[in-house]
Amino acid sequence: MFLAQMLLFSLTAARCIGVEDEIGLVANVNACEKRKEAMVNEAREIIPFLVVVHVDCKVIKGFAV
Q: What confidence score (pLDDT) does residue 11 get?
């Protein structure tokens, strides 16, 4: 299982913000890659003054469906 995560940076507040996918876990890395892309697009649309610093898929071990 995988969870999409994103790190954003605010130039105005000089702070980083960590975001995890609220949709939840996905079964494979391809689905996680798609969620990462969607999260970045949503973040840029909703909060354009934040800079996307890092996006990743976190492996959740020991979780099975």
A: 87
The token pair at 38 is 């969607």
Average pLDDT over residues 11-23: 91
Q: Which residues contact 58 (CB under 8 A, 6 or more apart)?
A: 2, 3, 4, 5
Select from 59, 62, 63, 45 the least CA-distant residue to 5. Answer: 59
Complete edge-to-edge strand list for the sheet that includes strand 50-59: 15-20, 2-10, 50-59
Backbone angles phi, psi at 19, to 5 degrees: -130, 135
Distance CA 19, CA 61 (A): 20
Instruction: Give this prediction's pTM.
Output: 0.81
CA 7-26-65 angle, 5° bins:
140
